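User: Here's a chain of 253 residues. Predict its fold as tokens.
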Amino acid sequence: MTPLRKLTVLATAGLIAFAPAACARGGGSAGPAGPGRSAGAAVSVGPAVSPAPSPSAVGPPVASPTEVTPTMTGRVVSATVTYPWHWPNDVGSPAVVRHDYAVPPVPRLAAIGAASHPGTGGERAYDRMSFTFTTAMPGYSFAFADQLIGDGTGQPVPVKGNGVLRVMFRQAQAHNAGGTDSSILTKPSRPLHLTRMTDYAPAGDFEGVVTYGIGVGWPVHSNPQPQVRAYEVVRVLADGQMRYTVAIDIAVR
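Assistant: Prediction complete.
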């Protein structure tokens, strides 16, 4: 069995080695995700957002013996917590983040990364999945569900775990201009075997909406409400190209 906290990292995903300082926390009752309030270019919906660390203060976490810290590429332009630790199914603070930008071109999903991060320096332990896009930061929302349903087909998509965190990106795509080839250059193998994240799977890439499900594991005889955080990083690469990463963090405890 692959040990928990196994790292599956992708250097081009850029963000997965980041461990921002502890943010504001909130709780809430369970319920379906609902519509968010209006937002601008980088606005969160949910509990009050604590400032993210300045780019110069952001650094890789202390790696455990089973982890590898990837080599970071490019220069950080901004790092922002857009949804602090919270239960995303809280109807009072749904996990909805909107970004407004002109299209075309539509941001393409270029890389996916995943890693376990130990709790150090007062930060809680968490698993992270990062999604890196070209062109711009897409809008997105996420919420827990009993199963992952494919967009358009209405059929269940197999994903290991006791539940699934459904992540939906809007004004985005995961294919190239021809529509037949994937735009994703690097991604983790399946299943994940991390502490909380057990697996992941695509559930849709159609009409500007890209959907993924992250399989989540917890004790069978429990009624968990895992806390989730969203974190964004904008980078400029050596050749001048921009990369926009959305990281979804799920607390281990």
